[in-house]
User: Fold this.
Amino acid sequence: EAGVAQSPRYKIIEKRQSVAFWCNPISGHATLYWYQQILGQGPKLLIQFQNNGVVDDSQLPKDRFSAERLKGVDSTLKIQPAKLEDSAVYLCASSRGDTQYFGPGTRLTVL
Amino acid sequence: QKEVEQNSGPLSVPEGAIASLNCTYSDRVSQSFFWYRQYSGKSPELIMSIYSNGDKEDGRFTAQLNKASQYVSLLIRDSQPSDSATYLCAVNLGGNNRKLIWGLGTSLAVNP
Assistant:
């Protein structure tokens, strides 16, 4: 069974630029999560989708972050404009039950 | 504020010893509990899940859950240098949204 796929793996941008990340969950997993992980901290949930509906986006900075999951499969997370403090690893995870499985993550550096 | 707390470490143990990692949580209605391992520069990888009070063993790993005391622990027997990583505790609050509350992680160093 293929795992969670993410791209790109690394991204370097200047502040105020925009960036987008892509995630393809494990086949059959209805729930998809985007996390932000800053070095030395646990993952912080940004948004959770159940199929193509949003379950929780309470910690998503909506003035600059957006996410969508069209057709209930792939998802994209966008940041526009980026700030220095957005430098982090962005993790995508998916689940069918309680257990979440993570993709390799995208390491974002904002200069 | 629902919280999950872990000692940040670093926890240092000699090779072959038992490493004991602890996690406490604040929400009494929590239903399921997870331990993830995260190597530096990698994403979290599931090690164990536990749902009922008591012990659950998988190879060198044992998860222990005590809901009355609101703690969950992970024991690693015969620790190996390859076990050196950060161990994240995550707690599911229950209900339909399956949201996990994460600890900050405990850094483990196994010394040869």
